[in-house]
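Quick review question:
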């Protein structure tokens, strides 16, 4: 990867994105030394313009950003770093430095929670109860929730429709996990079908 550090006085912007939810967490700047340290340690290190030194995110809070991938833009002067955060990315304690008001990619996060329940069962977990009942029961629940969503759309309140749609999506995520499929596979399929 050839990064052009010359355009902005030796610094390039580094956009930090959650690898699971794709939420943009923060923006920082890197010089060559910060980039090299990030690659070597697989933990994001920036060049702090205010402190005029290298700064590893999490060095005081322990909310480290573990590097999953690093990509560069078409002009070779901006980095996109996907990470697994140890905690909130923002110094205010918020998940992201950008105030979106909600986690717009929570469905992706929910998919990971469901996957985690499958790998590490939690006593009393509804996901684990469904998983224990098997594929037929999970598929039946998706069917029930689909019917309830249609009924809510035709005859009930907006709140009812939101609640039933949420139930449908949740149970569909469990069904996909039961079958070993991911939202990524579904998204890729939708993208391919959109191109046709």
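Suggested answer, residue by residue:
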């Amino acid at each position: 990867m050839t990064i052009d550090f010359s355009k902005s006085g030796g610094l390039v912007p580094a956009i930090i994105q959650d690898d699971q939810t794709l939420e943009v967490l923060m923006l920082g700047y890197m010089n060559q030394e910060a980039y090299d340290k990030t690659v070597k340690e697989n933990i994001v290190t920036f060049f702090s313009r205010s402190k005029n030194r290298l700064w590893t995110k999490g060095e005081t809070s322990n909310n480290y950003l573990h590097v999953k991938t690093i990509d560069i833009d078409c002009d070779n002067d901006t980095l996109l770093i996907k990470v697994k955060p140890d905690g909130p990315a923002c110094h205010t304690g918020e998940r992201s430095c950008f105030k979106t008001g909600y986690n717009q990619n929570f469905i992706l996060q929910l998919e990971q929670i469901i996957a985690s329940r499958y790998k590490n069962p939690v006593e009393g977990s509804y996901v684990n109860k469904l998983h224990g009942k098997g594929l037929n029961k999970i598929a039946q629940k998706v069917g029930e929730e689909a019917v309830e969503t249609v009924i809510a759309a035709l005859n009930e309140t907006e709140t009812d429709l939101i609640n039933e749609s949420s139930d449908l999506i949740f149970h569909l995520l469990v069904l996909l996990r039961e079958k070993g499929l991911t939202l990524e596979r579904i998204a890729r399929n939708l993208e391919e079908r959109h191109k046709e």
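Why it works: The mean pLDDT is 92. DSSP finds six helices and six strands in the chain.
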